[in-house]
Design a protein that fits this description.
The chain has 8 helices and 4 strands, in the order βααβααβααβαα. The protein has 154 residues and is of the alpha+beta class. The structure holds cytidine-5'-diphosphate and magnesium ion (MG).
């Protein structure tokens, strides 16, 4: 059985502007994932460059860092069984044009550069720790039990 783990998710500036933060939170909550940390911030240029360091050499890097710093974002940490892979499934393919209906990107976005939500890469084993550390101190993540946990897990 997969481990319960913590994964990093962020509502991007387009989600905030389009009033989709609640929808993103709802979908993760209703699936059974547990919110253990959240903030409302505007990212600095340095934070954006560090967050997207793996894409430094890509042609879309400058547009991406301009966009991600263009307005407030909502960084979050979600916990649950196999959370990283399950969140990637809920948000859908990177390109909303390819994302399946029923996924967040497949339901709320059309353009690759405006895909409303970020989540840590489940194929990069260091991604969660690196991204969580970039936005949260350990004491800002809260340990608690959801009242439905005994009904969510066998
Ligand atoms: O966000 P995700 O992990 O699904 O995709 P990524 O490959 O890590 O790319 C990071 C972000 O860069 C994407 O979410 C897109 O917003 C953006 N991007 C882009 O604008 N043009 C591309 N050709 C690829 C990615
Ligand atoms: Mg990525």
């Amino acid at each position: 059985m997969s481990e319960r783990e913590r994964t990093f998710v962020m509502a991007k500036p387009d989600a905030v502007q389009r009033g989709l933060v609640g929808e993103i939170v709802s979908r993760l909550e209703e699936r059974g994932l547990k919110l253990v940390g959240a903030k409302f911030i505007r990212m600095s240029q340095a934070q954006a460059e560090e967050h997207y360091a793996e894409h430094t050499d890509k042609p879309f890097f400058d547009d991406l860092t301009d966009f991600i710093t263009s307005g407030p974002v909502v960084p979050m940490v979600w916990e649950g069984q196999d959370a990283t892979r399950q969140v990637r499934g809920i948000i859908g393919d990177t390109d909303p044009a390819e994302a399946a209906p029923g996924t967040i990107r497949g339901d709320y976005a059309l353009d690759l550069g405006r895909n409303v939500v970020h989540a840590a890469d489940h194929e990069d084993p260091g991604a969660n720790e690196r991204e969580i550390d970039l936005y949260f101190d350990e004491e800002e993540l809260v340990d608690y039990e959801r009242i439905d946990e005994t009904w969510l897990y066998e």
